[in-house]
């Protein structure tokens, strides 16, 4: 079964800004994710940033991370929140700020 994978607009911008060779590797990993939504490792409280319910997925020899979460009671959509270099906690801060912005829009 294939699952629907969506990138939020900011994550799509992350993807578009990447080098062509890295894009290819990330696209391949996203395809794998559509087949197995639990491919990534669960996140919790990382560096004081609460990302419980989110997952991380390494790409390009662990130089990049994809941060995503699952949407729906019956797993309807896999939503990618951020794509970026594996630089300490920066990607987690980026994902958390995008999550806050997204939650404000929903109110």
TrEMBL record:
Keyword entries, A-Z: Toxin-antitoxin system
What superkingdom does the record give? Answer: Bacteria
- Tagged with keyword GTP-binding: no
Asked if Cytoplasm is a keyword of the record, the answer is: no
InterPro entries hit by this protein:
RelE/ParE_toxin, RelE/ParE_toxin_dom_sf
Protein name (database record): Addiction module toxin RelE
Please name the source species. Candidatus Scalindua arabica
């Amino acid at each position: 079964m294939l699952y629907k994978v969506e990138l939020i607009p900011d994550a799509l911008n992350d993807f578009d800004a990447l080098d062509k060779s890295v894009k290819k590797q990330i696209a391949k990993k996203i395809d794998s994710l559509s087949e197995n939504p639990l491919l990534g490792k669960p996140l919790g409280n990382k560096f004081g940033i609460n990302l419980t319910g989110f997952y991380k997925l390494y790409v390009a020899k662990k130089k990049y991370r994809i941060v995503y979460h699952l949407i729906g009671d019956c797993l309807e959509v896999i939503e990618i929140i951020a794509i970026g270099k594996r630089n300490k906690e920066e990607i987690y801060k980026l994902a958390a700020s995008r999550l806050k912005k997204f939650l404000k829009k929903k109110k």
